[in-house]
Design a protein that fits this description.
Blueprint lengths: L4 H7 L5 H17 L17 H17 L8 H19 L2 H16 L9 H18 L2 H16 L8 H19 L2 H16 L9 H18 L2 H16 L8 H19 L2 H16 L8 H19 L2 H16 L8 H19 L2 H16 L9 H18 L2 H16 L8 H19 L2 H16 L5 H17 L5 H17 L4 H8 L8 H11 L3 H11 L2 H8 L5 H6 L1 H23 L15 H26 L13 H4 L8 E6 L4 E6 L6 E5 L4 H11 L6 H29 L7 E6 L15 E3 L2 E3 L1 H4 L1 E4 L3 H8 L15 E5 L8 H9 L5 E5 L5 H10 L2 E5 L2 E2 L9 E3 L5 E3 H6 L7 E4 L19 H7 L4 E5 L7 H15 L10 H14 L6 H4 L2 E5 L1
Parallel strand pairs: 1-4, 4-7, 8-9, 8-10, 10-14, 14-15
Antiparallel strand pairs: 1-2, 2-3, 5-6, 11-12, 12-13, 15-16
């Protein structure tokens, strides 16, 4: 137990007045200094205005009291303890090693006076252990740490269950074991530390004054375990624990800045994993607040400077704001000044400052920054000699700097040193080390550079081998592995290496995996639209497969790497009727978990989760935000386990896997699907046929200019309609000449008859082009003929989407046999007066048509009626939101909107056909995720509508009534046809548009706007 101040005074004989006077004065000064028991969590002590005089006064009085209590005095141990504590306090404030050494000697003397069996032995055991740990932190001597652990174990044995000091001993021993783990990597130490800190937390229930200490310590342990295993559950629990600890450290609490520091580090780590900017912002705010609580002179100020510098440096990497980088450099310089020669953290400060000034070199090209970075890195490396646990970091950083100087000067000795340093760093990061992939990639990059300089093939082979190993290393961050795999594929392709296809396949697999562990659709979209090669990965991979003659693999790769967000959501709605027949319980578990995961993923988008902490109406807080993310992680992990169990069931080995070409061919059962693959490497048309291998046709690769020309032409639709039409006609003609004519020639060769149905599946930016209306292809009786005159064209975002659209729906109900119910949602207003005629044309003499008009068309009413109708017709204004790719919407009554996410979240058991008579319903917002097909029509198809008619851009209000009248006249004229109603929609649209073209004053821009998507 700790010997309290009042207990010491009570033990002194009454006639020892001099001792009482000196000790009382010493304790009074010590109280002013804020000296307390040596804690297991760094506290923010109050810095006195004149620390030197106060310390000296306290120590002098303690020495005087000790001198008056000579050896043999039964109270000497207590006085030794108090003087040791005073020396420890001065060491903490000044860093003077002689004070620490004297504290150790005094604590040893106090321990000698408390032999085994002495009732107060645990206190000097604890105090000596804390002092030995401090010396280890200063010198790195492992024997000090080992003695510290042994002493804390002995102290814990003397504090059995029920002892008030047991939680403190558990915390101290746990911290020591965690430190030894950091030095040796022995997982048993980390495991024991976690157990001890959990036990300590149980002994400090809510309301216990010391509860914040085990909360923080357990949080730190889980953060450490996360760094080793990558288990997001550990990181989420760590954040929750640190939030709880911070709540128990209100303003004025001595541990508040330490709790802020811990939480800042945890949310900063989560940002590194997920890219969620709110985490980075919170980390910066917490670090700033912690720094304010550690003014100049505070012993922990340097760590707050260091942490804040790293956080703002990270923000610079995201935003490119130079003021962030300059602030980071200034903060690192201030931290370095507080880490003079001999300070145990000097190496880390040197490393971080070196990285920051090297980053500035990359931005500004100032060679003096690069040279300073090299000097700083060398100094950091000198402070981490062989055997030092942190040696790999300065090795890696110096190597990166040497590589940068080689790129500036061409000096081969710099490149050679770079490679040698990376080899040394790699040796210190064995398999299982979280940074091993980084070292493998860096070494591979250095070797590839030397290959380029020398042509040595062994360098090329070794380089690509390291890239492969780095991409395969399962203990490293998934996004890091993905970036390495993408780099590997690009370098291997540039050298025509045999590993290229393997690299692309692994990259696509890692891209899928990275989305599975990414909590929200918005964050998934951010990954897919980044400047990292991911937006074009699928098309690049497919172009290589086509080049080497693996056309079927190209189709598989395009399917695997495109529309990933839809594909993952569609996977969560996988039909499981066959599985239910084999194992009902397993099928139900899959269904329940999938629905929960989908609900969480989409609900956090419809009301951005980043605003939850500010939502006072629901009483939520940042803890709720964390819980949502943690729950998503748990559900994703559960789903992974369930899927593994399903795959172990006979007949379900490929469940939830990327589909093979033999399965994807089913998309062409009713007509060929033409995939237009486009990348910077090449462009090709891939014709997928139901009963034979796919056919590839190499195309003109200059499609970018067509997309630009189309965009330019559409901008003239209001001001120069003739110029608009001429521009669009030019695009249509070029599209025919460069691509579509060659496809049609091949279809003729393959025996595909005219008037057949064909499906277009354009990739990348080509989804903006009107393939269905390419031409003119000829002139008949003075009238130009287009592709739409010869074939019935439809579109599909992916092959899987088309297959799903044709699959039968279990339990679908019809109110009238052979006749679906049609819902019309109409919002006529001053800007769109013709909508009134449009819905009247549909409703006329059709009792099975229900209309929601004007004030009837609220969001709730529309969603409810969607669920009860087979067909829907939306005649209202469509809105794109460039800043929110998941919030394009149909404008309803008043301020109501029906967003893409509303549609996704709806359960629509009867959905079959949708006509989106609104502008931009098949138009995508401008962004980097070119392959994600994020538009309203795709959302309708994903939600169950098998066939969808949509528009590529703004539609003419004048066309709505005519198109609706002609289209539904054809749809309902063939009710006795064996062809399902929704499948008649493509033909009905083609015939309607042919009639529309014949109208007086009709422009090309208006009639090619309408497209059919789906079955």
């Amino acid at each position: 137990m700790v010997v309290h101040d009042s207990d010491i005074i009570a033990l002194i004989p009454e006639d020892s007045h001099d001792i009482i006077t000196d000790l009382t004065q010493a304790l009074a000064v010590q109280a002013d200094l804020g000296t307390t028991e040596q804690p297991s969590l760094n506290a923010d002590t109050v810095i006195p205005s004149e620390p030197s005089d106060s310390y000296e006064e306290s120590i002098t009085h303690h020495r005087n009291a000790l001198e008056m209590c000579p050896p043999g005095n039964p109270h000497r141990s207590g006085f030794l303890n108090k003087l040791a504590e005073a020396m420890w306090t001065r060491f903490e404030q000044t860093g003077r090693m002689e004070d620490l050494e004297e504290s150790i000697v005094l604590n040893r003397d106090a321990l000698d006076l408390c032999p085994p069996g002495h009732p107060d032995r645990s206190s000097p055991l604890n105090n000596l252990a804390v002092a030995m740990r401090a010396r280890f932190e200063q010198t790195g001597r492992m024997d000090d740490l080992e003695e510290c652990i042994a002493l804390h174990r002995d102290a814990l044995e003397l504090r059995p269950p029920g002892h008030p000091g047991r939680p403190s001993s558990m915390n101290n021993l746990g911290n020591d074991l965690s430190t030894r783990f950091e030095q040796t990597g022995g997982m048993e130490d980390l495991k024991e530390s976690i157990v001890l800190h959990r036990d300590a937390l149980e002994l400090c229930p809510p309301g216990h004054p010391d509860r914040s200490v085990p909360l923080s310590n357990l949080g730190n342990d889980l953060s450490t375990r996360f760094e080793q295993t990558g288990r997001m559950e550990d990181l989420e629990e760590c954040i929750a624990l640190h939030r709880d600890a911070l709540e128990l450290c209100p303003p004025g609490h001595p541990y508040r800045s330490s709790s802020m520091n811990n939480l800042a580090g945890a949310v900063g780590t989560r940002f590194e994993q997920t890219g969620r900017m709110d985490d980075l912002k919170e980390s910066i705010v917490l670090n700033r607040d912690a720094l304010e609580l550690r003014p100049p002179g505070h012993p922990q100020r340097s760590s707050s400077l260091y942490n804040l510098a790293n956080a703002v440096s990270t923000r610079f990497e995201q935003t490119g704001r130079m003021e962030d980088l300059e602030e980071a450099i200034a903060l690192h310089r201030d931290a370095l000044e507080l880490h003079p020669a001999g300070h145990p953290d000097r190496s880390s400060s040197l490393n971080s400052l070196a990285s920051a000034v090297q980053t500035r070199f990359k931005q500004a090209g100032r060679m003096e920054d690069l040279e300073e970075s090299i000097v700083l890195n060398r100094d950091a490396l000198d402070l981490c000699p062989p055997g030092h646990p942190d040696r790999s970091s300065p090795l890696n950083n110096l190597a990166v700097a040497m590589r940068a100087r080689f790129e500036q000067t061409g000096r081969m000795d710099d490149l050679e040193e770079c490679i040698a340093l990376h080899r040394d760093a790699l040796e210190l990061r064995p398999p299982g080390h979280s940074d091993r992939s980084v070292s493998l990639s860096n070494l591979g990059s250095g070797l590839f550079t030397r290959f380029v300089q020398t042509g040595r093939m062994e360098d090329l082979e070794e380089s690509l081998r390291y890239y492969e190993e780095g991409a395969d290393h399962v203990f490293s961050n998934t996004l890091m592995r993905l970036s390495i795999a993408v780099r590997w594929a690009a370098l291997a392709r540039s050298q025509r290496h045999v590993s290229t296809l393997k690299a692309y396949r692994l990259a696509l697999s890692l891209l899928e995996s990275s989305l599975v562990i990414t909590p929200t659709m918005q964050m998934q979209h951010k990954i897919l639209s980044g400047r990292n090669g991911y937006p074009t990965l699928a098309s690049d991979a497919a172009s290589y497969a086509i080049k080497i003659g693996e056309v079927a693999q190209a189709v598989e790769m395009l399917e695997q790497g495109r529309a990933l967000i839809w594909s993952q959501m569609r996977g969560l709605r996988t039909p499981i009727e066959q599985l239910r027949e084999v194992n009902k319980g397993l099928a139900d578990r899959f269904l329940t978990t999938s629905r929960e995961l989908e609900s969480l993923t989409t609900s956090s988008e419809s009301k951005p989760i980043t605003l939850l902490a500010q939502d006072s109406t629901t009483g939520t807080s940042q803890e709720l935000v964390d819980e949502v993310y943690a729950r998503k992680r748990r559900l994703a992990s559960q789903l992974e386990d369930i899927v593994a169990e399903i795959r172990a069931t006979s007949g379900f080995e490929d469940f939830f896997r990327a589909r093979r070409f033999s399965v994807l061919q089913e998309a062409a059962v009713e007509g060929p699907v033409i995939i237009i693959s486009h990348s910077d490497y090449r462009s090709d048309a891939l014709i997928v046929l139901y009963d034979r291998p796919p056919v590839s046709i190499e195309l003109d690769s200059d499609f970018d200019s067509l997309v630009k020309d189309l965009k330019t032409a559409l901008q003239l639709v209001q001001t120069e309609p003739d110029g608009c039409d001429a521009g669009i006609s030019g695009v249509m003609e070029s599209l025919w000449n460069r691509a579509v004519s060659r496809v049609i020639e091949k279809l003729d060769d393959l025996g595909i008859q005219k008037q057949a149905r064909i499906w277009w599946c354009p990739t990348s930016l080509l989804s903006a082009l009107p393939f269905h209306a390419a031409g003119p292809i000829r002139v008949v009786n003075g009238r130009e003929q287009y592709l739409s005159d010869d074939y019935i064209s439809s579109y599909t975002p992916t092959l899987t989407a088309l297959i799903t659209a044709r699959e039968s729906k279990p339990g679908i109900r019809r109110h009238d046999i052979g006749r679906p119910r049609l819902l019309v949602v109409a919002l006529p207003d001053e800007s769109h007066p013709k909508i009134e005629k449009e819905y009247h044309a549909i409703q006329k003499d059709r009792e099975f048509v229900k209309c929601l008009v004007r004030e009837q068309a609220t969001r709730e009413a529309v969603i409810d009626e969607f669920r009860d109708h087979d067909w829907v017709h939306l005649a209202c204004y469509g809105r794109l939101n460039p800043d929110e790719p998941f919030l394009p919407a149909f404008q309803l009554f008043g301020e109501d909107r029906l967003t893409l996410l509303d549609i996704i979240q709806s359960n629509l058991p009867n959905a079959e056909f949708a006509f989106l008579s609104t502008g931009h319903s098949a138009g995508q917002t401008v962004g980097g995720a070119r392959e994600e097909v994020l538009h309203l029509a795709a959302a309708m198809q994903f939600s169950g509508f098998r066939s969808v008619i949509a528009t590529m851009w703004a539609m003419s209000d004048d066309d709505g009534p005519f198109v609706a009248k002609e289209f539904y006249k054809r749809m309902f004229a063939e009710e006795d046809s064996p062809e399902l109603g929704f499948k008649r929609s493509a033909r009905a649209l083609r015939e309607t548009i042919q009639r529309l073209r014949m109208r007086k004053g009709m422009t090309v821009e208006r009639w090619i706007n309408y497209i059919h998507i789906g079955a």
